[in-house]
Amino acid sequence: MIVVKLLDVIQDCCPPLLAAPLDEEAAGRLAEAFKVLGDPARLRLLSLIASRPGREACVCEVVEPLGLSQPTVSHHLKLLHDAGLLDREKRGTWVYYRVVPGRLAVLTELLGT
Amino acid sequence: MIVVKLLDVIQDCCPPLLAAPLDEEAAGRLAEAFKVLGDPARLRLLSLIASRPGREACVCEVVEPLGLSQPTVSHHLKLLHDAGLLDREKRGTWVYYRVVPGRLAVLTELLGT
DNA sequence: CGGACATATCGATGCTCGTCGATATTGCAC
DNA sequence: GTGCAATATCGACGAGCATCGATATGTCCG
Q1: Theoretical Cys-Cys bridge with B80: which of A6, B15, B59, B86, CB 3.0 to 4.6 Å?
Q2: Closest by CA position to B37, among listed A77, A107, A46, A7
Q3: Does the CB of B77 fall within 7 Å of any strand C atom?
Q4: Distance from residue A92's CA to nucleotide D1's C1', rounded to whole Å
Q5: Which residue of chain B comes nearest to A35, CA vs CA?
Q6: How many domains does chain A have?
Q7: Do B34 and A37 touch (CB under 8 A)?
């Protein structure tokens, strides 16, 4: 099953924000992406995982530092994964999430220099 | 009265997202900024204004293209202005909003390359 | 002054979403 | 198989917010 991530769609469909008026569809997709970043818990998750060896961490390693319940952390990780910002790999009982290199650059380019 | 804009604070306080774990305060501020961008109407406002001569527009020029009520548009413009993304200048009865150059770059740099 | 117009503010409403506890699911170890 | 540990899903609750109509504020013009 191939799942197209939000950031992949954005990469192919959206012009630079300040270059031309966005149509409703492009604006909606872009807004979705920024909404993913618009939560403190998710930003901390990203930066927390990025600072680990291999830019990866299993769920149990980030629950306590975040100070949120395990279901809530799992929820945020899912959103980050669905957006295409985190890779997900199962290793036995553990699930490791890894920062996908260069995915944030998709947004960077749309924001301009 | 000097008002410090959200993006100015972020510029001075926040490390690159993927460089080190964000503390709660920095994460909160950054999330606030992305929340401003996390709405289709505000993204369309930004791109709409940016594509006008002088990168500016008065409120009455953007209400109709957006398809939202005047109070709602005014509300979104206020949020963009409070964040530091739009300048506000009153000319008689009209109020012109202008894209502040380089403000989006504050976020760009925090997202990394 | 008084009316017309542009914009902002207010109050209300409905929806989205972050959060949690409870529970289901999966995989390992004994 | 049975029990335990890690993770995901579910249902519910509450806060936040986008939106609107009504109204206030401010400005120009005659």
Answers
A1: B86
A2: A107
A3: yes
A4: 20
A5: B38
A6: 1
A7: yes
| Residues belonging to chain B | 113
**Residue B35, domain extent:** 6-110
pLDDT tens per residue, range A33-42:
999 999 999 9
Q: 3-class SS at B68?
A: coil
CA–CA separation, B80 and A62 (whole Å):
33
Q: Rounded to a whole number, what is the distance in Å from the CA of B89 to chain A's nearest CA?
A: 20
Question: Which CATH number do you get for residue A70?
Answer: 1.10.10.10
Distance of alpha carbon B61 from alpha carbon B53, whole angstroms: 12
Residues B59-103 pLDDT 10s = 999 999 999 999 999 999 999 999 999 999 999 999 999 999 999
- Please indicate, yes or no, if residue B1 is contained in any of the structural domains: no
Helix (H) or strand (E) holding A34: helix A24-37
